[in-house]
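Incident log entry.

Two folding requests arrived from the same account within the same minute. Monitoring flagged them as a possible duplicate submission, but the sequences differ. Recording both here for audit purposes.

Request one:
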Amino acid sequence: MKDFVFRPATPGDYESINRLKVQVHDYHFQHRPDYFNRSDQPLARSYFAGLLNSERYHVFVIETSEKILAYAITYIITYDSNPLVKEHERLYIEDICVNESNRNQGVGTRLFNELEAFCRTEQLSHIALDVWNFNERAIRFYNEMGMHPVIQRFEKRVG
């Protein structure tokens, strides 16, 4: 097994991350063409640059000496204490992808474990994300990582 390196993303990672983002977006488009538009450029360069310059967002990659195998775009959510919710911070995974040809090789597990370590270092209490119900492979992976569903979103087409 190759050695995987976990590190923060840099501006030079844009093309590699965008290629992976195309895999994610194409999968979503295939399953929900009523919701997603087809796009060959789903990650705008300016948006990516803004993520890297943000104090709230953290973009990470897993790479080998040859290439980037996975990425995670995350941000920290702060909940202030109020009568209904306890004060806490959590890491929200906005977007995550392991290259299709590198799945089932421990890359995703390593990425997730590194995100957990980041949470411990930053004293974040939870990791959260949304996943489409059609993405059964991702749901299985998140369950294997110890995640569990806490909210369901419903929709009904009316037009």
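Request two (distinct sequence, not a duplicate):
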Amino acid sequence: MKLYATLAGVPDEHIISAAMTVICKVGLQMFIETQAGNLSGGNKRKLCLAMALIGRPKILFIDEASAGVDPGSRRVMWNAIKDEGQESAIVITTHAMEEAEAISDKIAIMVGGQLKCFGSLKEIQTEHGMGYEIELNIDTESLNESMTEFRPEEAITSDKTRVLQVLEEITDFWAQDEYPKAIDPVEEFSRGGIFSNYISRINKGEQIDLNIFRREVLFNNAVGCIINELSMKASEATV
């Protein structure tokens, strides 16, 4: 932080106070004696933000400021950015609408590399926020109980073939029971799809819990069935 304060042109007599101010602003005061390389991923992001903020630059560009940071720390970072924005022009890119709403005076939304809208949050919501938001609570335990006779004998595995076998058994079970089917589990897993996280872990040699994986298969299928049902009953609507 002293190094970046010097690079930012902070006078020598103010370097310590400037560094401490920014460290406290982003919530790193507990790690003041920790080497940067030994910080956690979230705290490294805080440190990157602190290095950018020091010296109070007039223009600041920030990319995905709080990605991968826990909710409490995220709020601290947002407050630091908002405070800096009182005297600086800040451009921040983010995939999180919550982050954009919390920080920004103006929001621009891009789709496929094209700027689709620009304005205040209220202006964008007024012009583009028509429609309904549906919140669904799905009881995964009830979903599990619907397949009580099907339980993998070996719950922990890193064998991709074994996972595919489990998915085939689920698919066969659905076919016998005429169970509503919105996804093809084997196809989704084979191409990555909604289970790409599991494929990545298996490819790294990590073990996964087949019972937890099975629950996620059932959950995603249930969500797909609900969306299909809504789409049929409101065919003129777009999602």
